[in-house]
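Hi! If you just cloned this repository, the fastest way to understand the data is to look at a raw example. We've pasted two of them here, unedited. The first protein comes first, obviously.
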Amino acid sequence: MNRAIALIIGFLLALPSHAQTLAGAVEQAWSRHPQAAAIVAREAEARARAEVAAGITPGPASMSLSNLNDRLNHNRGKQEWEVELAAPLWLPGQKAARQTEAESAVGEVAARRAFLRLQIAGEVREAWWAVAGARNARDLAARRSATARALEADVVRRFKAGDLARVDANLAQNERLAAEAELLEAEVVLRQAEQAYRGFTGDAAPAAIAAENAPAFGDRKDDHPQLVALAAVAQLAHARLKVAQETRRDAPELALRMVRDRDVFGEPHTNTVGVKLTIPFSSGARLRQESAAARAEVYQADAELALARQKIELDAERARLEFDIALRQFAMAEERRALTADNLRLAEKSFSLGESDLTALLRARGNAFEAEVFSNRQQVARAAAQSRLKQALGVLP
Protein backbone atom coordinates (compact mmCIF):
# COMPACT_ATOMS: atom_id res chain seq x y z
CA MET A 1 0.00 0.00 0.00
CA ASN A 2 2.73 2.45 0.96
CA ARG A 3 4.67 1.48 -2.15
CA ALA A 4 1.64 2.25 -4.34
CA ILE A 5 1.15 5.64 -2.69
CA ALA A 6 4.83 6.44 -3.22
CA LEU A 7 4.55 5.51 -6.91
CA ILE A 8 1.50 7.72 -7.34
CA ILE A 9 3.21 10.67 -5.64
CA GLY A 10 6.31 10.17 -7.80
CA PHE A 11 4.18 10.09 -10.94
CA LEU A 12 2.43 13.32 -9.98
CA LEU A 13 5.72 15.02 -9.27
CA ALA A 14 7.02 13.92 -12.65
CA LEU A 15 4.14 15.59 -14.49
CA PRO A 16 4.97 18.88 -16.22
CA SER A 17 4.21 21.91 -14.11
CA HIS A 18 1.80 24.51 -15.45
CA ALA A 19 2.43 28.18 -14.81
CA GLN A 20 -0.56 29.47 -12.84
CA THR A 21 0.74 33.03 -12.48
CA LEU A 22 2.08 35.62 -14.86
CA ALA A 23 5.47 35.48 -13.15
CA GLY A 24 5.59 31.72 -13.67
CA ALA A 25 4.67 32.16 -17.34
CA VAL A 26 7.52 34.65 -17.78
CA GLU A 27 9.89 32.19 -16.15
CA GLN A 28 8.82 29.45 -18.55
CA ALA A 29 9.20 31.75 -21.56
CA TRP A 30 12.65 32.78 -20.31
CA SER A 31 13.78 29.16 -20.06
CA ARG A 32 12.73 28.57 -23.69
CA HIS A 33 14.09 31.75 -25.27
CA PRO A 34 17.14 31.25 -27.53
CA GLN A 35 18.84 34.46 -26.43
CA ALA A 36 18.52 33.42 -22.79
CA ALA A 37 20.71 30.40 -23.54
CA ALA A 38 23.21 32.63 -25.32
CA ILE A 39 23.39 34.94 -22.30
CA VAL A 40 24.87 32.11 -20.23
CA ALA A 41 27.69 31.70 -22.76
CA ARG A 42 28.26 35.46 -22.85
CA GLU A 43 28.54 35.51 -19.07
CA ALA A 44 31.20 32.81 -19.24
CA GLU A 45 33.03 34.79 -21.91
CA ALA A 46 32.96 37.95 -19.79
CA ARG A 47 34.29 36.08 -16.74
CA ALA A 48 37.08 34.56 -18.83
CA ARG A 49 37.98 38.01 -20.11
CA ALA A 50 38.20 39.24 -16.52
CA GLU A 51 40.55 36.36 -15.67
CA VAL A 52 42.78 37.28 -18.61
CA ALA A 53 42.85 40.93 -17.56
CA ALA A 54 43.87 39.93 -14.02
CA GLY A 55 46.78 37.82 -15.28
CA ILE A 56 50.44 38.64 -14.83
CA THR A 57 50.91 38.88 -18.58
CA PRO A 58 48.49 39.99 -21.31
CA GLY A 59 48.80 36.61 -22.99
CA PRO A 60 50.18 33.11 -22.46
CA ALA A 61 53.91 32.43 -22.43
CA SER A 62 55.53 30.48 -25.26
CA MET A 63 58.49 28.16 -25.64
CA SER A 64 60.65 27.54 -28.70
CA LEU A 65 63.28 24.83 -29.28
CA SER A 66 65.88 24.93 -32.06
CA ASN A 67 68.85 22.76 -33.10
CA LEU A 68 71.87 23.55 -35.29
CA ASN A 69 74.46 20.97 -36.54
CA ASP A 70 76.80 20.24 -39.50
CA ARG A 71 75.71 16.71 -40.37
CA LEU A 72 74.70 17.61 -43.92
CA ASN A 73 78.17 18.93 -44.91
CA HIS A 74 81.33 18.55 -42.76
CA ASN A 75 79.87 16.35 -39.99
CA ARG A 76 82.59 17.39 -37.53
CA GLY A 77 80.28 17.15 -34.57
CA LYS A 78 79.15 20.73 -34.34
CA GLN A 79 76.00 20.79 -32.23
CA GLU A 80 73.90 23.59 -30.82
CA TRP A 81 70.62 23.43 -28.89
CA GLU A 82 68.66 26.52 -27.95
CA VAL A 83 65.61 26.81 -25.71
CA GLU A 84 63.72 30.09 -25.41
CA LEU A 85 60.94 30.91 -22.95
CA ALA A 86 59.09 34.11 -23.90
CA ALA A 87 56.19 36.02 -22.33
CA PRO A 88 54.41 39.21 -23.44
CA LEU A 89 54.43 42.22 -21.11
CA TRP A 90 51.79 44.74 -20.20
CA LEU A 91 52.22 48.25 -21.56
CA PRO A 92 52.06 51.06 -18.99
CA GLY A 93 48.41 51.63 -18.09
CA GLN A 94 47.19 48.79 -20.28
CA LYS A 95 46.53 46.29 -17.49
CA ALA A 96 44.32 48.69 -15.54
CA ALA A 97 42.42 49.59 -18.72
CA ARG A 98 41.89 45.90 -19.55
CA GLN A 99 40.62 45.18 -16.04
CA THR A 100 38.16 48.07 -16.26
CA GLU A 101 37.00 46.80 -19.64
CA ALA A 102 36.52 43.28 -18.29
CA GLU A 103 34.51 44.51 -15.31
CA SER A 104 32.39 46.62 -17.65
CA ALA A 105 31.81 43.60 -19.87
CA VAL A 106 30.58 41.52 -16.92
CA GLY A 107 28.21 44.31 -15.89
CA GLU A 108 27.02 44.76 -19.46
CA VAL A 109 26.08 41.09 -19.79
CA ALA A 110 24.19 41.17 -16.48
CA ALA A 111 22.31 44.32 -17.53
CA ARG A 112 21.54 42.81 -20.93
CA ARG A 113 20.15 39.75 -19.17
CA ALA A 114 17.76 41.86 -17.09
CA PHE A 115 16.61 43.85 -20.13
CA LEU A 116 16.02 40.68 -22.16
CA ARG A 117 13.92 39.32 -19.31
CA LEU A 118 11.83 42.51 -19.35
CA GLN A 119 11.33 42.20 -23.11
CA ILE A 120 10.17 38.60 -22.72
CA ALA A 121 7.83 39.71 -19.93
CA GLY A 122 6.25 42.25 -22.30
CA GLU A 123 5.57 39.58 -24.91
CA VAL A 124 4.11 37.19 -22.34
CA ARG A 125 1.92 39.95 -20.87
CA GLU A 126 0.39 40.66 -24.27
CA ALA A 127 -0.22 36.96 -24.89
CA TRP A 128 -1.63 36.57 -21.36
CA TRP A 129 -4.28 39.27 -21.82
CA ALA A 130 -5.01 38.22 -25.39
CA VAL A 131 -6.08 34.84 -24.00
CA ALA A 132 -8.15 36.54 -21.29
CA GLY A 133 -9.95 38.75 -23.82
CA ALA A 134 -10.58 35.84 -26.19
CA ARG A 135 -11.98 33.72 -23.36
CA ASN A 136 -14.36 36.47 -22.29
CA ALA A 137 -15.56 36.91 -25.86
CA ARG A 138 -16.03 33.15 -26.28
CA ASP A 139 -17.96 32.83 -23.01
CA LEU A 140 -20.27 35.70 -23.90
CA ALA A 141 -20.82 34.30 -27.38
CA ALA A 142 -21.68 30.93 -25.85
CA ARG A 143 -24.18 32.57 -23.52
CA ARG A 144 -25.72 34.48 -26.41
CA SER A 145 -26.00 31.27 -28.44
CA ALA A 146 -27.65 29.39 -25.58
CA THR A 147 -30.09 32.27 -24.98
CA ALA A 148 -30.88 32.47 -28.69
CA ARG A 149 -31.63 28.75 -28.84
CA ALA A 150 -33.93 29.00 -25.86
CA LEU A 151 -35.68 32.02 -27.38
CA GLU A 152 -36.08 30.23 -30.71
CA ALA A 153 -37.65 27.21 -29.01
CA ASP A 154 -40.11 29.43 -27.12
CA VAL A 155 -41.04 31.47 -30.21
CA VAL A 156 -41.51 28.36 -32.38
CA ARG A 157 -43.72 26.84 -29.69
CA ARG A 158 -45.87 29.98 -29.54
CA PHE A 159 -45.93 30.19 -33.35
CA LYS A 160 -47.27 26.63 -33.58
CA ALA A 161 -49.83 27.50 -30.93
CA GLY A 162 -50.96 30.49 -33.01
CA ASP A 163 -49.81 33.17 -30.55
CA LEU A 164 -47.04 34.57 -32.80
CA ALA A 165 -46.62 35.15 -36.51
CA ARG A 166 -44.26 33.25 -38.79
CA VAL A 167 -42.08 36.33 -39.18
CA ASP A 168 -41.35 36.16 -35.44
CA ALA A 169 -40.22 32.55 -35.80
CA ASN A 170 -37.95 33.56 -38.68
CA LEU A 171 -36.48 36.40 -36.62
CA ALA A 172 -35.77 34.04 -33.73
CA GLN A 173 -34.12 31.54 -36.06
CA ASN A 174 -32.01 34.29 -37.62
CA GLU A 175 -30.91 35.42 -34.15
CA ARG A 176 -29.88 31.86 -33.29
CA LEU A 177 -27.87 31.46 -36.52
CA ALA A 178 -26.10 34.79 -35.96
CA ALA A 179 -25.24 33.84 -32.38
CA GLU A 180 -23.86 30.46 -33.45
CA ALA A 181 -21.72 32.10 -36.16
CA GLU A 182 -20.35 34.54 -33.62
CA LEU A 183 -19.56 31.66 -31.27
CA LEU A 184 -17.59 29.86 -34.00
CA GLU A 185 -15.61 33.01 -34.73
CA ALA A 186 -14.89 33.51 -31.02
CA GLU A 187 -13.66 29.90 -30.77
CA VAL A 188 -11.21 30.51 -33.62
CA VAL A 189 -9.88 33.69 -32.04
CA LEU A 190 -9.48 31.93 -28.69
CA ARG A 191 -7.60 29.03 -30.23
CA GLN A 192 -5.23 31.42 -31.99
CA ALA A 193 -4.59 33.31 -28.75
CA GLU A 194 -3.95 30.10 -26.82
CA GLN A 195 -1.57 28.84 -29.52
CA ALA A 196 0.36 32.12 -29.38
CA TYR A 197 0.60 31.80 -25.61
CA ARG A 198 1.81 28.20 -25.90
CA GLY A 199 4.39 29.35 -28.43
CA PHE A 200 5.89 31.69 -25.83
CA THR A 201 5.70 29.50 -22.74
CA GLY A 202 5.50 25.97 -24.13
CA ASP A 203 2.46 25.30 -21.96
CA ALA A 204 -1.28 25.88 -21.97
CA ALA A 205 -2.70 29.02 -20.43
CA PRO A 206 -3.98 28.62 -16.86
CA ALA A 207 -7.67 28.28 -16.16
CA ALA A 208 -7.75 31.49 -14.11
CA ILE A 209 -6.01 34.60 -15.46
CA ALA A 210 -5.49 37.10 -12.66
CA ALA A 211 -4.62 40.77 -12.93
CA GLU A 212 -1.35 42.20 -11.65
CA ASN A 213 -1.04 44.44 -8.63
CA ALA A 214 -1.24 48.15 -9.28
CA PRO A 215 2.16 49.82 -9.75
CA ALA A 216 3.46 52.61 -7.55
CA PHE A 217 2.92 55.68 -9.69
CA GLY A 218 5.36 57.85 -7.77
CA ASP A 219 8.36 55.63 -8.42
CA ARG A 220 11.03 57.03 -10.73
CA LYS A 221 12.41 54.36 -12.98
CA ASP A 222 16.03 55.46 -13.23
CA ASP A 223 16.79 51.77 -12.72
CA HIS A 224 14.71 50.78 -15.74
CA PRO A 225 16.37 47.64 -17.17
CA GLN A 226 16.66 49.20 -20.63
CA LEU A 227 18.39 52.29 -19.23
CA VAL A 228 20.67 50.14 -17.09
CA ALA A 229 21.55 48.00 -20.12
CA LEU A 230 22.29 50.99 -22.36
CA ALA A 231 24.29 52.66 -19.58
CA ALA A 232 26.34 49.47 -19.27
CA VAL A 233 26.90 49.46 -23.04
CA ALA A 234 28.09 53.06 -22.87
CA GLN A 235 30.40 52.27 -19.95
CA LEU A 236 31.86 49.34 -21.88
CA ALA A 237 32.39 51.55 -24.93
CA HIS A 238 34.28 54.11 -22.82
CA ALA A 239 36.40 51.31 -21.34
CA ARG A 240 37.26 50.01 -24.81
CA LEU A 241 38.26 53.50 -25.88
CA LYS A 242 40.60 53.68 -22.90
CA VAL A 243 42.14 50.34 -23.86
CA ALA A 244 42.66 51.56 -27.42
CA GLN A 245 44.36 54.69 -26.16
CA GLU A 246 46.65 52.73 -23.81
CA THR A 247 47.57 50.13 -26.44
CA ARG A 248 49.97 52.24 -28.44
CA ARG A 249 51.80 49.25 -29.91
CA ASP A 250 51.85 45.46 -29.76
CA ALA A 251 52.87 43.97 -26.44
CA PRO A 252 56.65 43.84 -25.82
CA GLU A 253 58.11 40.43 -25.20
CA LEU A 254 60.67 39.30 -22.66
CA ALA A 255 62.49 36.04 -23.38
CA LEU A 256 64.96 33.86 -21.47
CA ARG A 257 67.40 32.04 -23.79
CA MET A 258 69.46 28.97 -22.86
CA VAL A 259 72.04 27.65 -25.36
CA ARG A 260 74.06 24.42 -25.15
CA ASP A 261 76.68 23.89 -27.93
CA ARG A 262 80.04 22.38 -28.98
CA ASP A 263 82.23 22.90 -32.05
CA VAL A 264 83.55 19.37 -32.82
CA PHE A 265 83.35 15.81 -31.55
CA GLY A 266 85.13 15.21 -28.28
CA GLU A 267 84.89 18.75 -26.99
CA PRO A 268 82.77 19.42 -23.93
CA HIS A 269 79.44 21.25 -24.28
CA THR A 270 79.23 24.83 -23.14
CA ASN A 271 76.10 26.37 -21.65
CA THR A 272 75.10 30.00 -22.03
CA VAL A 273 72.09 31.92 -20.74
CA GLY A 274 70.76 35.18 -22.12
CA VAL A 275 67.82 37.56 -22.00
CA LYS A 276 66.03 39.05 -25.00
CA LEU A 277 63.60 41.99 -24.97
CA THR A 278 61.49 42.62 -28.06
CA ILE A 279 59.80 46.03 -28.33
CA PRO A 280 57.52 46.47 -31.38
CA PHE A 281 57.38 49.87 -33.00
CA SER A 282 54.26 51.95 -32.61
CA SER A 283 51.96 52.43 -35.61
CA GLY A 284 50.25 55.79 -35.64
CA ALA A 285 47.77 54.83 -38.37
CA ARG A 286 46.73 51.68 -36.54
CA LEU A 287 46.32 53.54 -33.26
CA ARG A 288 44.18 56.19 -34.96
CA GLN A 289 42.06 53.51 -36.59
CA GLU A 290 41.35 51.63 -33.35
CA SER A 291 40.79 54.82 -31.38
CA ALA A 292 38.40 56.19 -34.01
CA ALA A 293 36.39 52.94 -34.03
CA ALA A 294 36.19 52.92 -30.22
CA ARG A 295 35.25 56.60 -30.16
CA ALA A 296 32.45 55.96 -32.66
CA GLU A 297 31.05 53.26 -30.34
CA VAL A 298 31.17 55.74 -27.45
CA TYR A 299 29.27 58.39 -29.39
CA GLN A 300 26.64 55.90 -30.52
CA ALA A 301 26.18 54.38 -27.06
CA ASP A 302 25.82 57.80 -25.41
CA ALA A 303 23.31 58.94 -28.03
CA GLU A 304 21.25 55.75 -27.69
CA LEU A 305 21.19 56.12 -23.91
CA ALA A 306 19.94 59.72 -24.10
CA LEU A 307 17.30 58.82 -26.68
CA ALA A 308 16.13 55.79 -24.71
CA ARG A 309 15.79 57.85 -21.52
CA GLN A 310 13.49 60.28 -23.31
CA LYS A 311 11.50 57.49 -24.98
CA ILE A 312 10.97 55.64 -21.71
CA GLU A 313 9.60 58.79 -20.09
CA LEU A 314 7.19 59.29 -22.99
CA ASP A 315 6.14 55.64 -22.94
CA ALA A 316 5.47 55.81 -19.20
CA GLU A 317 3.35 58.96 -19.61
CA ARG A 318 1.37 57.38 -22.43
CA ALA A 319 0.85 54.17 -20.41
CA ARG A 320 -0.41 56.17 -17.43
CA LEU A 321 -2.84 58.06 -19.66
CA GLU A 322 -4.12 54.85 -21.25
CA PHE A 323 -4.58 53.29 -17.80
CA ASP A 324 -6.57 56.30 -16.57
CA ILE A 325 -8.77 56.16 -19.69
CA ALA A 326 -9.28 52.41 -19.22
CA LEU A 327 -10.45 53.02 -15.64
CA ARG A 328 -13.00 55.62 -16.73
CA GLN A 329 -14.21 53.51 -19.66
CA PHE A 330 -14.72 50.51 -17.40
CA ALA A 331 -16.77 52.57 -14.95
CA MET A 332 -18.99 53.86 -17.78
CA ALA A 333 -19.29 50.36 -19.25
CA GLU A 334 -20.48 48.97 -15.92
CA GLU A 335 -23.11 51.69 -15.67
CA ARG A 336 -24.27 51.01 -19.23
CA ARG A 337 -24.47 47.28 -18.59
CA ALA A 338 -26.67 47.83 -15.55
CA LEU A 339 -29.05 50.04 -17.55
CA THR A 340 -29.33 47.66 -20.51
CA ALA A 341 -29.81 44.67 -18.20
CA ASP A 342 -32.71 46.45 -16.53
CA ASN A 343 -34.22 47.29 -19.93
CA LEU A 344 -33.87 43.65 -20.97
CA ARG A 345 -35.74 42.44 -17.90
CA LEU A 346 -38.57 44.87 -18.67
CA ALA A 347 -38.63 43.84 -22.35
CA GLU A 348 -38.74 40.13 -21.48
CA LYS A 349 -41.62 40.70 -19.08
CA SER A 350 -43.48 42.80 -21.64
CA PHE A 351 -42.97 40.19 -24.36
CA SER A 352 -44.15 37.34 -22.13
CA LEU A 353 -47.33 39.31 -21.36
CA GLY A 354 -47.91 40.08 -25.02
CA GLU A 355 -47.50 43.82 -24.55
CA SER A 356 -44.56 44.13 -27.02
CA ASP A 357 -43.39 42.32 -30.14
CA LEU A 358 -40.32 40.17 -30.69
CA THR A 359 -38.46 42.94 -32.49
CA ALA A 360 -38.41 45.06 -29.34
CA LEU A 361 -37.20 42.10 -27.28
CA LEU A 362 -34.42 41.31 -29.75
CA ARG A 363 -33.39 44.95 -29.78
CA ALA A 364 -33.22 45.03 -25.98
CA ARG A 365 -31.39 41.71 -25.93
CA GLY A 366 -28.86 42.94 -28.50
CA ASN A 367 -28.25 46.15 -26.57
CA ALA A 368 -27.77 44.23 -23.33
CA PHE A 369 -25.41 41.77 -24.96
CA GLU A 370 -23.41 44.53 -26.61
CA ALA A 371 -23.15 46.38 -23.29
CA GLU A 372 -22.00 43.23 -21.50
CA VAL A 373 -19.42 42.49 -24.20
CA PHE A 374 -18.09 46.02 -23.97
CA SER A 375 -17.97 45.87 -20.16
CA ASN A 376 -16.07 42.59 -20.13
CA ARG A 377 -13.73 43.85 -22.83
CA GLN A 378 -13.05 46.98 -20.80
CA GLN A 379 -12.40 44.89 -17.71
CA VAL A 380 -9.68 43.00 -19.59
CA ALA A 381 -8.46 46.24 -21.16
CA ARG A 382 -8.12 47.80 -17.72
CA ALA A 383 -6.01 44.89 -16.46
CA ALA A 384 -3.96 44.87 -19.68
CA ALA A 385 -3.38 48.62 -19.42
CA GLN A 386 -2.16 48.12 -15.86
CA SER A 387 0.30 45.48 -17.08
CA ARG A 388 1.48 47.77 -19.89
CA LEU A 389 2.06 50.53 -17.38
CA LYS A 390 4.22 48.24 -15.26
CA GLN A 391 6.02 47.17 -18.42
CA ALA A 392 6.67 50.81 -19.35
CA LEU A 393 8.01 51.42 -15.84
CA GLY A 394 10.32 48.42 -16.17
CA VAL A 395 8.62 46.34 -13.46
CA LEU A 396 8.62 42.57 -13.86
CA PRO A 397 5.57 40.48 -12.86
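Ok, and the second one:
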Amino acid sequence: HCLLARRLLQAGTTCVKVTHFDWDAHQDNFYWHQIRCAEFDRTLVTLLDDLSERGMLEHTLVVVTGEMGRTPQINNLGGRDHWGRCWSMAMAGCGVKPGILYGATNDTGTEVKDNTVKLGDLFHTYLRALGINSRMKYEIGGQTNPVADPAAKPIDALLA
Protein backbone atom coordinates (compact mmCIF):
# COMPACT_ATOMS: atom_id res chain seq x y z
CA HIS A 1 0.00 0.00 0.00
CA CYS A 2 2.88 2.39 0.75
CA LEU A 3 4.45 1.67 -2.64
CA LEU A 4 1.13 2.47 -4.30
CA ALA A 5 0.86 5.64 -2.19
CA ARG A 6 4.32 6.78 -3.32
CA ARG A 7 3.45 6.09 -6.95
CA LEU A 8 0.20 8.04 -6.61
CA LEU A 9 2.12 10.98 -5.15
CA GLN A 10 4.63 10.79 -8.00
CA ALA A 11 1.71 10.89 -10.43
CA GLY A 12 0.43 14.13 -8.89
CA THR A 13 -2.16 12.94 -6.38
CA THR A 14 -2.24 15.49 -3.56
CA CYS A 15 -3.59 13.36 -0.70
CA VAL A 16 -3.22 9.64 -0.09
CA LYS A 17 -4.48 7.64 2.88
CA VAL A 18 -2.82 4.32 3.74
CA THR A 19 -4.55 2.20 6.37
CA HIS A 20 -2.91 -0.44 8.54
CA PHE A 21 -5.77 -2.29 10.15
CA ASP A 22 -6.56 -4.50 13.10
CA TRP A 23 -4.93 -2.68 16.00
CA ASP A 24 -8.04 -3.16 18.16
CA ALA A 25 -6.44 -5.54 20.66
CA HIS A 26 -9.05 -5.98 23.38
CA GLN A 27 -7.45 -9.37 24.01
CA ASP A 28 -4.00 -10.90 23.50
CA ASN A 29 -2.52 -7.39 23.34
CA PHE A 30 1.14 -8.38 23.52
CA TYR A 31 0.98 -11.07 20.82
CA TRP A 32 -1.19 -8.89 18.58
CA HIS A 33 1.01 -5.83 18.78
CA GLN A 34 4.22 -7.79 18.30
CA ILE A 35 2.93 -8.76 14.85
CA ARG A 36 1.38 -5.38 13.99
CA CYS A 37 4.38 -3.34 15.11
CA ALA A 38 6.81 -5.53 13.15
CA GLU A 39 4.74 -5.03 9.99
CA PHE A 40 4.19 -1.34 10.56
CA ASP A 41 7.70 -0.31 11.64
CA ARG A 42 9.45 -1.82 8.60
CA THR A 43 6.86 -0.44 6.22
CA LEU A 44 6.85 3.11 7.62
CA VAL A 45 10.64 3.38 7.67
CA THR A 46 10.83 2.06 4.12
CA LEU A 47 8.24 4.60 2.95
CA LEU A 48 10.04 7.50 4.65
CA ASP A 49 13.42 6.38 3.25
CA ASP A 50 11.90 5.96 -0.22
CA LEU A 51 10.31 9.43 -0.16
CA SER A 52 13.54 10.96 1.14
CA GLU A 53 15.78 9.26 -1.44
CA ARG A 54 13.51 10.52 -4.23
CA GLY A 55 13.46 14.08 -2.86
CA MET A 56 9.73 13.79 -2.17
CA LEU A 57 9.74 13.96 1.63
CA GLU A 58 10.58 17.67 1.60
CA HIS A 59 7.15 18.39 0.04
CA THR A 60 5.14 15.45 1.42
CA LEU A 61 3.56 15.50 4.88
CA VAL A 62 3.31 12.04 6.46
CA VAL A 63 0.92 11.74 9.42
CA VAL A 64 0.60 8.55 11.47
CA THR A 65 -2.31 8.40 13.88
CA GLY A 66 -5.19 6.33 15.13
CA GLU A 67 -8.61 7.44 16.22
CA MET A 68 -7.94 6.89 19.95
CA GLY A 69 -5.44 5.71 22.50
CA ARG A 70 -5.44 2.48 24.46
CA THR A 71 -5.99 2.06 28.17
CA PRO A 72 -2.81 2.03 30.22
CA GLN A 73 -4.17 -0.99 32.11
CA ILE A 74 -4.39 -4.54 30.75
CA ASN A 75 -7.93 -5.95 30.95
CA ASN A 76 -8.92 -9.45 32.11
CA LEU A 77 -8.47 -10.81 28.54
CA GLY A 78 -4.88 -9.60 28.29
CA GLY A 79 -5.93 -6.69 26.08
CA ARG A 80 -6.18 -2.94 26.18
CA ASP A 81 -9.47 -1.12 25.69
CA HIS A 82 -10.22 2.27 24.14
CA TRP A 83 -8.85 5.38 25.84
CA GLY A 84 -9.79 8.80 24.56
CA ARG A 85 -7.91 10.91 27.09
CA CYS A 86 -4.45 10.66 25.51
CA TRP A 87 -2.66 8.96 22.65
CA SER A 88 0.33 9.32 20.37
CA MET A 89 0.85 10.25 16.76
CA ALA A 90 3.79 11.01 14.49
CA MET A 91 4.47 13.49 11.71
CA ALA A 92 7.32 13.63 9.21
CA GLY A 93 8.22 15.46 6.07
CA CYS A 94 7.56 18.92 4.74
CA GLY A 95 7.29 21.72 7.21
CA VAL A 96 7.85 19.51 10.28
CA LYS A 97 10.87 19.70 12.59
CA PRO A 98 12.46 16.25 12.81
CA GLY A 99 13.04 14.63 16.19
CA ILE A 100 10.62 16.78 18.19
CA LEU A 101 8.68 15.28 21.09
CA TYR A 102 5.71 17.42 22.05
CA GLY A 103 3.45 16.77 25.01
CA ALA A 104 3.64 14.22 27.80
CA THR A 105 1.40 12.10 29.96
CA ASN A 106 1.58 11.49 33.67
CA ASP A 107 3.59 8.50 34.92
CA THR A 108 0.68 6.08 34.46
CA GLY A 109 -0.29 7.30 30.97
CA THR A 110 -3.81 8.13 32.07
CA GLU A 111 -3.81 11.91 31.54
CA VAL A 112 -1.94 14.50 29.47
CA LYS A 113 0.27 16.57 31.78
CA ASP A 114 2.17 18.82 29.34
CA ASN A 115 1.21 20.51 26.06
CA THR A 116 -2.30 19.22 25.46
CA VAL A 117 -3.06 19.18 21.73
CA LYS A 118 -6.56 19.87 20.48
CA LEU A 119 -7.81 18.66 17.11
CA GLY A 120 -8.24 22.19 15.77
CA ASP A 121 -4.62 23.01 16.62
CA LEU A 122 -3.47 19.84 14.90
CA PHE A 123 -5.44 20.68 11.76
CA HIS A 124 -3.89 24.18 11.64
CA THR A 125 -0.46 22.54 12.09
CA TYR A 126 -1.03 20.16 9.15
CA LEU A 127 -2.09 23.03 6.91
CA ARG A 128 0.81 25.28 7.92
CA ALA A 129 3.30 22.42 7.36
CA LEU A 130 1.93 22.10 3.83
CA GLY A 131 2.28 25.83 3.25
CA ILE A 132 -1.47 26.46 3.32
CA ASN A 133 -2.79 29.53 5.14
CA SER A 134 -5.10 28.01 7.75
CA ARG A 135 -6.75 31.40 8.32
CA MET A 136 -8.19 31.51 4.79
CA LYS A 137 -11.91 31.40 4.15
CA TYR A 138 -13.93 29.84 1.37
CA GLU A 139 -17.44 30.42 0.13
CA ILE A 140 -20.14 27.85 -0.58
CA GLY A 141 -23.67 28.85 -1.52
CA GLY A 142 -23.09 32.45 -0.49
CA GLN A 143 -21.87 31.50 2.98
CA THR A 144 -18.29 32.33 4.00
CA ASN A 145 -16.59 29.59 6.02
CA PRO A 146 -13.19 29.33 7.70
CA VAL A 147 -10.81 26.67 6.38
CA ALA A 148 -10.01 25.72 9.99
CA ASP A 149 -11.32 26.48 13.47
CA PRO A 150 -10.79 30.23 14.06
CA ALA A 151 -10.25 29.61 17.79
CA ALA A 152 -7.37 27.18 17.15
CA LYS A 153 -3.79 27.81 16.04
CA PRO A 154 -0.80 25.89 14.65
CA ILE A 155 1.62 24.25 17.05
CA ASP A 156 4.69 26.34 16.20
CA ALA A 157 7.06 24.07 18.18
CA LEU A 158 6.47 21.31 15.60
CA LEU A 159 6.98 23.43 12.52
CA ALA A 160 10.26 23.99 10.71
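That's it. A detail worth noticing about the second one: The first strand starts at residue 61 and ends at 64.
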